[in-house]
UniProtKB/TrEMBL annotation:
This protein's UniProt keywords: Cytoplasm, Cytoskeleton, Metal-binding, Microtubule, Phosphoprotein, Zinc, Zinc-finger
SMART domains cross-referenced by the UniProt entry: RA
Bias (Polar residues) ranges: 9-28
Keyword Metal-binding: yes
Gene Ontology cellular component annotations, sorted alphabetically: microtubule; nucleus
SUPFAM superfamilies reported in the protein's UniProt record: Ubiquitin-like
Pfam family, one: Nore1-SARAH
All residue ranges annotated as the SARAH domain in the record: 221-268
Species in which this protein is naturally found: Albula goreensis
Name of the protein: Ras association domain-containing protein 1
Amino acid sequence: MSDGGGEDQTPSFEMTWGSTTSSGYCSQEDSDCEFEQYFTARTSFIRKPKKEKDEQVEWGKQELSPSEIEQKVKEYNAQINSNLFMALNKDGSYTGFIKVQFKLVRPVSVPPPRKATSPQDGGRRPTGMKRRTSFYLPKDTAKHLHISSRTRAREVIEALLNKFTVVDNPRKFALFERSERHGQVYLRKLSDDERPLHLRLCAGPSEKILSLVLKENETGEVNWDAFTVPELHNFLRILQREEEEHVKQIVQRYARARDKMREALASTTPG
């Protein structure tokens, strides 16, 4: 990403794999395997993880003068022990690194590996249904992005997906600001126009004070139009399967309670 300055602002990326958890990889060569296999192998996409408390955080509302930006950049660089420094540009903008953690519960889709064409095909690739490959990103995957102070949250999401060659609609994802205070975790969804590097500068380098997280965009405003028809059909099948399993568990629980009551009645002496 470029901020319009004189220096080369091409984003540099660093990927950190934090787990060796199986990815649940599956190819869509089988017409129905993709989403049905993934979601039944894990907790449902509807069942949400541990609730994190929401609170409005004011980092993004801090407007800094050029002198304040220069001072904060110096303070920021003095607190880090790596080469992930921030740098001021002549036009008043600044560049630096942000770390984004992936907290995705759904698989992501990428183009399938290219297959070599045979001479019988005349060098042409077969036409027809577009295929893709889907997999779960390992837990606690993180990525460092080199961006400008003018880079918006929506651009960060698009850059992350492009780097992973993810073909899902970017609107399925959202960038969140996460902080920890007094034993509580606070989570706030960033608007498309917020500037993540500005948040990083104002909060400082501490990941506890502020960290950036990429999650599914499911805060009560899921854009179902962004999903394909096969995906939606698979979601319905998953919901039906979960409903049947839930009913089965309830019936079993009441049957066990009834058996225990009958045993208790049988062991008592009348009077």
